[in-house]
Amino acid sequence: MTVIEKFCRILRDRSEENKSSFSVLYKNKLYGNCFSVLRQELDSMVRVIYLINIPDISQRELLVNKTLNGEKWTFINHNNKVQTITDRDMVNLASQLRGWTQNVYKFGCAFIHLSNFHSYLTEDPFSSLTDSEKEDIVNQLNNYHFAGLTKDSKMNDIIPYLPNVMDKITANFEYDICKLENNEDNNF
Questions:
Q1: Which of 17, 98, 101, 175 gets the most CB atoms within 10 Å of its CB?
Q2: Superkingdom of the source (predicted)?
Q3: What is the model's pTM?
Q4: What is the mean pLDDT of residues 64-89?
């Protein structure tokens, strides 16, 4: 088994577990944790998007090996220094290619890290977003999930669409995994 095949198997195993976890959490109305699982799924996806944007297959394999060895991803920058590839770097690239990733990632981070979003049962976290962030999320949900939301919508209006969002992320993610397995470049 190649390192790419092993990495893709890990990605799919994590994705299957995320889908199962999401389903249980959603059924039990544990929506804050649903956002966390969405963010985990997106975390894996942005890594794959980053990899398929590296045309040099040996460079991809080097980063994949770092993951398999429990190491951080790094590269040699323009000053010939080793620099860490951050989650922000990967999210920024994914957002340039697919504008919605940053919004889901950021909203999900608020549920992973302790924040005011954890009081979502008494205070609507959607109302604490900027108008621009609300519009981005609403536009995404309206365009891809036919939600009919406005920037005045509340989190409770968004919750019914979470399974659709999870399905969309996992479908896009599987498509990207296949591209990685087939040593394809990222052509959106």
A1: 101
A2: Bacteria
A3: 0.82
A4: 92
